[in-house]
UniProtKB/TrEMBL annotation, chain B:
This is Multiple sugar transport system permease protein. Residues 66-272 form the ABC transmembrane type-1 domain. GO terms for cellular component: plasma membrane. PANTHER family: BLR7065 PROTEIN (PTHR43005), SPERMIDINE_PUTRESCINE TRANSPORT SYSTEM PERMEASE PROTEIN (PTHR43005:SF1). Belongs to the binding-protein-dependent transport system permease family. Pfam families: BPD_transp_1 (PF00528).
Amino acid sequence: MGRWAPPIALGVIVAAFLGPFAWVLLASVQPGANLAAEPTWEFSLTNFEAVLTWETTVLPLINSVIISGGTAALTVIVSALAAYPLSRYRLRYKRHFMLTLLFSTGLPVVAILVPVYSMFFRLNLYGSVPAMIVFLSASSLPFAIWLMKNFMDGVPISLEEAAWVDGAGWVQSLTRVVAPLMAPGIAVVGIFVFVGQWGNFFAPLILLDAPEKQPAAMTIFTFFTQYGQVAYGELAAFSIIYTTPAVILYVAVNRYLAGSFNLGGAVKG
Amino acid sequence: MRRWLLPLGPALVLLGLFMVGPILWSVYIAFTNETLTGSASVDSQFIGTANFVRMFGDENFLNSFLLTFVFVIGSAVIGQNTLGLIIALLQRGRSRTTRGVVNGVVIGAWVMPEVVAALCWFSFLSEDGTLNTVLGLEQEWLYTAPMLAVVLANVWRGTAFSMLVYSAALSEVPRDLTEAAAVDGAGARQRLVHVTLPLIRRSILANLMLITLQTLASFGLIYTLTGGGPGNASQTTPLYMYEQAFKYFEIGYGSAIALVLLVIGALFSLVYLRLIRVEE
């Protein structure tokens, strides 16, 4: 293998990965772009202007923020509470519980949604956004508790002892001492859940009925099946607006998540 | 009252009602003829193992099972796993800029929502799309080779995960081991096969389990890209489950299929737990 082989191979890989992005990026700034990749020298932001209406983009994005944000907020609160005894107390079944959580992160949520739909239908919760948020939070909890406990283990217990001497209970200890010290960890868990739900397509497809409740993932799909061939430029512009928050948030937490890709070393439980 | 009960309570209630509950519920309805239309929607009846008997004689289910197998092996085990390892190996010793560009492009495909990823591939593979223009072909890829299309799209989308896992694993391989092998006259290929790969085998196995689990349950990408078609040529099991449960409203049969997916997922998840070391 020559000296130039690795850089050339990387160049080919980068080019191959760029291929599928290319026309979406270009089409978004080409007025009148359709599915055929025929670039012109005409550039404008008319596609972005065209889709920035209440029904097409604004409302679906608000719905996405409500669903992802609600799920992230609920998951953060519940997982922070749960992580406290798991991190601070000696519990008999702690190891079993943590292993069960890790096990359930592997279960296919797609398959769980069939019985969830049947349950929601019987309990009259079908089409309810809050009910869907509660379900999505439950499905995010195993990994969130796991992450949260690891961040909490990093806060020295000695810092809490002063608060205990002053007569603080676990609630004060958690909210006044531990939570402020692990604020970056809490942010990472919140953003991680938010980004995960931002792209969720299957849950709203199954659990929501009315178009006005649908998040951007679903409206892009609907737009695509209806006008994808003719208004591809607009669809591309909408996709870019929708993708941007996920990319920005990923970049923000990227550094903190790096450790979780180390599968060869021991996992701290 | 136990002191752990209050803080752990909300999590236990949520997990009990919305994770354990539905799984138990699916075990029950998988043995009934529950539908959303017709008389069985009012009072569904216990029909024993009829759904499972039907499943294993159902050509469309068996077709979906085979396609899921092809999809998992092709896009995850072979595609993402190998390509992720190759990119991680090639990136060693490259400049910060080179790694930044490669990571940016590969991770970009992974971070975007799956609907958008499908959109990228729909136009890329369309008749006048980028791929045909570059290769000078006139293929309708999504009709002539739908499985190849979804496999490639999923390799593109998911390689970042394996790449990140292998970058982390390779950074832990001690340099003196590979250098000692080089001194002993081992070539690049021998160093890789006899030194590096055995050292990261745990990461390889754990990664294979995780990407298999993710790919097994993949829905949005295939659904948006081909809809399982043409016909059922790319209808993997999650898509077939969706069609039975939500297009034909056969919730009982759909749950039986969901249960099969859950059991397969649980098996892989157990293997994964055995592979990693969990410390207190």
